[in-house]
Amino acid sequence: MRIDTINVHIHPPAALAQALLAAIARPAFDEPDPEAPAAADTAAAPVPPAIGEPWPGIEGSVYAGLTRAEDGQPDGHLVLLAEKPEADLPWKQAIKWAGGLGNGSRLPTRWESALLYANLREQFDTDAWYWTSTQCSASRAWFQYFYYGTQLDDSKSVEARARAVRRFDA
User: What pTM was estimated for this model as a whole?
Assistant: First the structure.
């Protein structure tokens, strides 16, 4: 049988007991382990605003929420940008329009569009279909309907609405 607990009973003076416990515990907590690697200097990630609130530093943008990691990327904060194209566009033009806004802007993926529906559907015309960046095939891509949350695929030549997003690592 192995005993893992040792009880030490020390009676007065209490100061002696405190000094003994402090001497026993101090090396484990106060002195760094010379063999341990130095801790990384990490800055705290900025705290995102509440969902539906403006994203700091991007005028007219709205925070949509946290997206799951894809393709080896870390989880990310999704931000809906304020810009809208003047007319409905076929898929390839919608991709080009969103990317042309710069700074990593793009059409949302199919999964990000579901998050936009869940958290920001009031930011969209609920009677219109919106392109996603997710393709079904060489000639078809997914789009999102914001009234019911429906997602369907259609020909990339169909004209639909577009909105752009940006993603920031969490």
Answer: 0.73
